[in-house]
Amino acid sequence: MKPQRHSAILDLVRNERISSQEVLRELLGSRGFDVAQATLSRDIRELGLVKVPDEEGGSVYTVPSHVTEPTPALFRLLPTLYLGSDGVGNLLVVKTLTGGAQPVAAAIDWEEWPEVVGTIAGDDSILIVLRGPEHLRPVTNRLEQLAGM
């Protein structure tokens, strides 16, 4: 949901005059994204949006030139860092190359998968706590698919 919401935010800011978070929140709502103000503030910060003066004497959000369509971090990280995983019940341990656990865990958290309660990362291992044991196989399959396995 977050990647789609970020894409919608970038599209709106590039194509509409967005003078406030409330205007952006309403436009997102018209596209089917019901977001809280705190979530929207975090999205704006994560995307690096800035407010600049406009020709009408107010200010509007803009997308800095270095920001492109967000590519899900897992899509970039897993093919090179993922070694495998094993789990039992609602616990899944993911093995990565040395130093890869922290960025992969952060990317999993960023995805906001509804099956995932949270992650704990070491240097080359991640513990993923799932909402229930029924999520073990689907999450494992998704990770392996993203890793290209």
Number of separate helices: 6
What does the overall shape look like?
elongated
The first-level CATH class name of the largest domain: Alpha Beta
The stretches of 5 or more residues where confidence is low (pLDDT under 50) are none
Mean pLDDT over the residues: 89
Assembly state:
single chain
Strand fraction? 15-25%
Structural class: alpha+beta
**Rg measurement, Å:** 18 Å
Strand order within the widest beta sheet: 3-4-6-5
Order of SSEs, N→C?
A: HHHEEHEEHEEH
Largest sheet: 4 strands, antiparallel
Distance between the termini: 24 Å
Total count of domains:
2
Number of strands: 6
CATH architecture of the largest domain: 2-Layer Sandwich
Helix content: 40-55%
Task: State the CATH topology of the largest domain.
Answer: Gyrase A, domain 2
Would you mind describing this structure in some detail?
- With 149 residues, this protein is α+β, with helices and mostly antiparallel strands.
- The protein has 2 domains: 2-62, Arc Repressor Mutant, subunit A, CATH 1.10.10; 73-147, Gyrase A, domain 2 (2-Layer Sandwich), CATH 3.30.1360.40.
- It is 45% helix and 22% strand.
- The protein has helices spanning 2-15, 21-30, 37-47, 73-81, 101-111, 136-147; strands at residues 50-53, 59-62, 82-88, 91-96, 116-121, 125-130.
- The strands form 2 sheets. A 4-stranded antiparallel sheet has the order 3-4-6-5. A two-stranded antiparallel sheet has the order 1-2.
- A hairpin with a 3-residue loop joins strand 5 (116-121) and strand 6.
- Helix 4 (73-81) runs antiparallel to helix 5 and helix 4 (73-81) crosses helix 6 (136-147).
- It starts with a helix and ends with a helix.
- The mean pLDDT is 89.
